[in-house]
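Q: Got a minute? One more chain.
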Amino acid sequence: MSTITLNLIDYDGTPRSFSARTGRSLMKASLDGGVDGVSADCGGCLTCATCHVILAPEWLSKLPPRSADEEAMLDMAAHPREAGSRLSCQIELTPELDGLVARVAPTQY
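A: Always. Here it is, folded:
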């Protein structure tokens, strides 16, 4: 497994850059990286939407489309959906995501 660099912006605007292993979810990497605002209450089971992040537009094409279940959970997220909204539990880190830029939704509850 390789490592990539992630650039996340906490819900309060604090930027964080850290390394993460490929094959993990962005949610788990964010928790390990100390990113504030990703609470991941369901542990990545796609049942809570408390790992809502907004990806910078240039990264969206590097990901598979949202599943119907992810779409449904984003409809129930506390922060309104944006064009780059994704649930970080549904993003598997791959080498193509090296340098990924995303911000945590300002409210998860």
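A: The first helix runs from residue 26 to 32.
Q: Perfect, thanks.
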